[in-house]
Amino acid sequence: MLRYTLLRLLGAIPTLLLVIVLAFLMVHAAPGGPFDDERVLPADVEANIAKAYHLDESLPKQFVRYMSGLLRGDLGPSYRYRDHTVSELIRSGFPLSLQLGAMAITLALLAGVSAGTVAALRQDSLLDRVIMSFAMTGISIPVFVIAPVLVLLLAVKVHWLPAGWSGSAGAAKFVLPVFTLALPQIAYIARLTRASMIDVLGRDFIRTARAQGLSTSTLVRVHALKPAMLPVLSYMGPAIAAILTGSVVVEEVFGIPGLGQFFVRGALNRDYTLVLGIVIFYATLIVFLNLLVDILYGVIDPRVRYK
Amino acid sequence: MSLLEVSGLSIRYAGAAVVNDISFTVDEGESVGIVGESGSGKSQTALALLGLLPKQADVSGSVKLGGEEIIGATEQALNKLRARRVGIVFQDTMQALNPYMQIGKQVRQVLLQHQLAAGDAADRRVMEMLRRVGLPDPERQFRAYPHQLSGGMRQRVMLASALIAEPDLLIADEPTTALDVTVQAQILELLEDIRDNTALLLITHDLGIVAGRCERMLVFEKGRLVDAGPTTSLFASPGHAHTRALLDVAPRIDRGTFPAPIKASTILSVEAAEVVYEAGGSAQLRAVIDVDLSLRKGETLAVVGESGSGKSSLVRAILGLIPMHSGRVVYAGEALDGPVETRSIAQKRDFQLVYQDPVAALNPQMRVQSIVGEPLSVHEPSLSSQERIARVITTLQKVGLDDNYLRRYPHQLSGGQAQRVAIARALILEPSVLVCDEAVAALDGSVRAQVLALLRTEQNKTGLSIIFISHDLAVVRSISHRVLVMYMGHLVEFADCEKIFAAPRHPYTRALLDAVPVPDPVVSVRVAPLKGEVGSLLSPPSGCVFHPRCGYAKEICSERAPEPRDVGGSRVACHRADDIELTPQHP
Lengths: 307, 587
What we know:
The complex is a heterodimer. By secondary structure, chain A is mainly alpha-helical. Chain A has a single domain (about 85-300), classed as Orthogonal Bundle (MetI-like fold). Chain A contains 11 helices and no strands. Chain A has helices at about 1-30, 45-50, 60-70, 85-120, 125-140, 145-155, 170-200, 205-210, 215-255, 260-270, 270-300. Chain A starts with a helix and ends in a 7-residue tail after the last helix. By secondary structure, chain B is α/β, with parallel strands linked by helices. Chain B has a domain at about 5-250: 3-Layer(aba) Sandwich (Rossmann fold). Chain B contains 22 helices and 22 strands. In chain B, the strands form 4 sheets. In chain B, strands 16-17-18-13-19-20-22-21 form an 8-stranded mixed β-sheet, with helices on both faces. In chain B, strands 6-7-8-3-9-10 form a 6-stranded mixed β-sheet, sandwiched between helices. The model of chain B has no long low-confidence stretch (mean pLDDT about 90). The chains are: A mainly alpha, B alpha/beta.
């Protein structure tokens, strides 16, 4: 297991390297630079700034410089948020994003698995059809449509929930963003759970358990739930990635000062180091979480052995 | 009043009856066998007794257990009855036990569900039960997962879970079908020993099992109960033509003439074959160890042994499908080595293979004509499409299928028809060696008899040589000229069919023969089954690999591995081959 974990971590290095190179090339390929402004700077000032930030060097040289900093754990200074390093910005934005993401994924799992299980147990009933229609809707409508519509309905029209972030206190301000973020995942997990639960309930060992007189609830709890969760667990990697990208939009719509917002601003401002830093941070996070998912897979399915 | 009273039971799916107006009873403590071919409705009947049929099933009639009606009972009422009054054992325990759950917990769940015990007391009862069904080291095995146990051990666990709540009736649905013959004997013996006064309803396709074990038997055909009565009288004078037919096609290890040995020249010889698998890290698994064999023209050579004996590995290595670690294969005077991809097209053509599961061996997206004709497109690409079709039609006729089958897909074929198509695909190239890997194991008795007759006819006509891998010794006896017995990768005995069956020289051969059930209650004498299971190939026993299970083992057997040698015309690997007398109980 330890050997497997170490090997997987080593295997992640080329992946991360590829991500870094691609992200580096892409931010630099985007037209404009971090110090372009409506107010045009005098040429000599511009040259000085470029020199100070080494933007006058060739791209390979800049890359080497960036990488050598990265290896020392230094993500560099932000180009636009003067006086702040990228690490500081990530530290300030991430806790809120993490909180949001964790709440969304928890909600998605609880609601998705319950809805999917109920639908599977009542296969082809009206309830099953209703749940699956909702799930289909949840998958079809993108976050950037759901978010404003929910704000309009629940916050602007009926005033049940706060529309924005700042100024509102308490847990209520989490409701809309978390729900918006979780909705497509609830829908997807519900569909996955339903399909895999139907598959598991049709297996021979479930028939054995029924022949032992187990009630349906015990059957699901003791025998079916664990194996039915395997496809859901595999989906956790992509789900987490989807929540991270979703949070970029959601934070922007609800004005939440999380990492997503820094990312959007950073991209718009050509804040090279900030964008790169967040990309690397997220990529590392996703690699780790995927590893965790694979290890959990082995915990659920004893036939999977890591060598 | 009988314990179980079934009257007028019918089961329909979308109007089509799979079980039609069946009535029978089982008394307390009685053992009743249900026999029939696949599709006869025997398993459906078993599921109906527990109310386990799917929702789509339309069930009518009455099933009374101790006076209580089961058909139409609520799920709650059924749950009180299941396991507590009726236990069931299924076949294919890899699927029938939960692969994600420790076996001890699965057995314990029965006690918890029926509130028969809780906490430590429950654990103790489970371990006691596991001990009774013969699981070694129950404390440790409690935490084992099904895949960590052998098939025989899993079936013991299944039996423990079915009996732990002390039901009045035990249903065993093909409980030994996927098991090796020596393990089958152990399980059947255990079933008899452990059930005490629990009535037994034993469902099987194997008349031999019923003959030795059941007081009464019921014969099912296409959803109908066609014959019933005491086992001895039904075997002696069948009341129905179908019972007669089943008895006629049941292969018997105790009678019939032996195929006369073939005197033709050797076309394939194998010397010192070794197959080694990497088993992770530096561990090596030696699947085939120093095996010699020869195959004559027009001969059927059977390779027999339990799972893990290396019989399939040996043959696959000869075919070049897996690497042969060392050894020499000579075919028609030429060395045959290297993987199949590197062999000449003529050599590939001369060896064809038929698998166990015909449906899985046929591409579901291809029609029969393309499946059977495909080898021609490789080996005789110059044929026009008319010529090819003509060849396909002649070959299909050989295997007894007319041209109505040309445009069918595999799923539109029965098991027997699919196996004929697979054989036609192998025969269309007119190979000189046909390898049948458990090719009739999945077929019903009547179909199996037809397929075997087909192989025999083809052999007589064309001088085809056949390598017949099988675990079923009764079948082997009827068609093989010579038999190679393997155990844990070693050649154990290699001799003419008659010598193997009438005068075995190796204790393992004898044990295998004794374990085969005979479909005749008069002949069926029970002997103590071979103890233990096949050892681990990763750490094989010292000396003779069979010595831990051998009743004749002496000191030398654990010290030195026996070399195969000639004893009375048989090739035997046993230190004691000349000083022990081994007469099988059914010569």
